[in-house]
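[09:14] KT: can someone run the structure on this one? pasting the chain below
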Amino acid sequence: MKKEEEGKEYYFLKSIERYGDGEFFIRVFSLKGDTMSFLLIKELVPMENGEFISLYRCDRDEDNRILSRDIYDIRGLMKAVAAFDSVSHS
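[09:31] RB: done, structure tokens below
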């Protein structure tokens, strides 16, 4: 971690559960022992070429801020959710 990030509390993925169609219940934890959870919603957005891209957002603005500011590896979290989604269709 960079020196200026040493005092910051980052969160790491703990679990993913399917909450509904295109909705995921995410639990995260910090190394200090704190936990948080939030609902992540998948939206399929059409691109100009006719294909669709998956975009993810939280259902509450404060959760979006947590997601973008406090998750240590946001790309890793998104990859984990996409992989979970591809193997857990109900």
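[09:33] KT: thanks! The longest strand covers residues 35-46.
[09:34] RB: yep, looked fine to me
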